[in-house]
Amino acid sequence: MYKYDEIDQSLVSERAAQFAQQVIRRLNQQISEDDFKPLRLQNGLYLQRHAYMLRVAIPYGMLSSTQLRTLAKIAKYYDRGYGHFTTRQNIQFNWIELKEAPLILEELAAVEMHAIQTSGNCIRNITSDPFAGVAADEEVDPRPICELLRQWSTLHPEFAFLPRKFKIAINGAKQDRTILLCHDVGIELKRGANEELLANIYVGGGMGRTPLLAELIKTDLPWQDLPSYLTALLRVYNRYGRRDNIYKARIKILVKALGIEEFANQVHAEWEGTQSHYDRLTQADWDRVAPHFTKPPYKTLPHYSPQRLIAEVFPNEQAEFTRWLKRNVRSHQVPGYASVTISLKPHGNHAPGDATALQMQWIADLADQFSFGELRVTHEQNLVFADVEVTRLIDLWRKLCDFGLGLSNVGLLTDIIACPGGDFCSLANAKSLPIAKAIQERFDNLDYLHDIGDISINISGCINSCGHHHVGNIGILGVDKDGEEWFQITLGGAQGNEAAIGKVIGRAFLAQEIPDVIERIIDVYLQERYEDERFIETFWRIGLEPFKKAAYANTSSVEELV
């Protein structure tokens, strides 16, 4: 993974020292809260419902074991013993005292981390495939491009005060694991006829009040031109994006208003004047960054079948180990290795995406033992060991089980994506975490979960959609109705290559009704599905109405809330 050079280190260290002085001035009442707000947001510090929240950047989701230990230390000594991994591959700490925030930034800077551009109307942390560099279906390792664009975008002076935040995702595999089309800009990397590195550019995606899928704006862009093309695109957004209405200030609104053809024309005209001399990557740039993403020292290992592994565990372990192999283990580019997803979705114990300080310590130790001291964060709020020897999977699984991290529910109904919701966020209309807990408790039987199969449930506590509810097969949105919490259901959302925005089924439900509603929806699926047919495939085949009819049986739902 990428290692800081002198410039990177100076930047984050000096930023931490600068913010320390700003905090002192705020605590001494030399700066008002209004004047302090943009300063703290530039350092990832939000004032939430109960305390300050610090969002730490994890560029394209990559972490070293050393960095994870530092995050564990922050959770233990500066928070309430845990951190929350987010849908943008970052981590949040929800109980931060203002006076200690500079100390945390110092701790982060010491291990090549920071909180820059995790907030505010700027280019946010770039996300990518958590299996980058190891995925069996990968065409291009996106990490060098991710890093080059991270460096280009960090503290970019022209784009520090955009109309609203701006999110970029980069994918280099046949299967999209980045929700590419739900970003302001999605970059699809590929190889040309002569193996040259090219990019397709998608623009105008996003969730929130106006969920839209991005549209293709540029094909076969040489990788060297990515910064200049993105600069042109962002300039058009910066020039014409709505600043009079916060809810209309995203690039998707501009693209929709202009139409993709006119927007493309505007970008092309801007790009024509700059591409020959401005912001162009060079081979020297590539040679400086790419060596950080070379392959680790893999061994030459024999083929080891899943059946052989299953035969080697104790009889009383076989059922659960088999499930774990099926749900949590993925194929790898290198024979004899596999990638393992660690579920952070234990049933009813804590919020989806939360990890305790002790768990983070354990995972860091396991990363050293089993995966070359590295791990990844997924947008589904889980963690990944990318490089595990197949012959060591049994040992790893047993250790994960000892730590309460061996649950085989990746991709299943209880692998819920959820924002912090009204328990923490001052923007939320409703609490999302109790809903997630109630669903997990209702569907706690692993045999039943595995029988249901692949299905995604995403929960957002407000229309900002931090829980990505629009692209969940089942989406749940918290809404306010006369000071009372209600929940709106969408069906048919999907991510990946079959990305789709879910459809609102109708009226909202009370919190206590949600587990029953979800169960009735699942019952329809189980009754109507063909053999080996996923929930989303059944939905496409039979449509919304059978699910809607079942959902509203015996409920106290209110009129539709939008």
Question: What labels describe this entry?
Answer:
five-stranded antiparallel beta sheet, six-stranded mixed beta sheet, 4 domains, Sulfite Reductase Hemoprotein, domain 2, Sulfite Reductase Hemoprotein, domain 1, about 550 residues, alpha+beta
Number of strands: 21
CATH architecture of the largest domain: 2-Layer Sandwich
Give the quaternary arrangement of the chains. Answer: single chain
What is the CATH level 1 assignment of the largest domain? Alpha Beta
Task: Please estimate the helix content.
Answer: 25-40%
Short description:
With 562 residues, the protein is of the alpha+beta class. It has helices at residues 6-27, 33-41, 65-78, 101-109, 143-153, 226-240, 251-258, 260-272, 283-289, 306-312, 318-328, 357-370, 393-402, 433-442, 446-452, 514-528, 535-542, 545-551, and strands at 45-47, 52-56, 62-64, 82-85, 91-96, 127-128, 168-171, 185-191, 197-203, 215-222, 329-330, 337-342, 354-356, 374-377, 383-389, 417-418, 457-460, 474-481, 484-491, 503-504, 509-510.
What would your notes on this structure say?
- This protein has 562 residues and is α+β, with helices and mostly antiparallel strands.
- It contains 18 helices and 21 strands.
- It has helices spanning 6-27, 33-41, 65-78, 101-109, 143-153, 226-240, 251-258, 260-272, 283-289, 306-312, 318-328, 357-370, 393-402, 433-442, 446-452, 514-528, 535-542, 545-551, and strands at 45-47, 52-56, 62-64, 82-85, 91-96, 127-128, 168-171, 185-191, 197-203, 215-222, 329-330, 337-342, 354-356, 374-377, 383-389, 417-418, 457-460, 474-481, 484-491, 503-504, 509-510.
- The strands form 4 sheets. Strands 16, 17, 18, 19, 20 and 21 form a 6-stranded mixed β-sheet that branches.
- The longest helix is centred in the first third of the chain and has 22 residues, at 6-27.
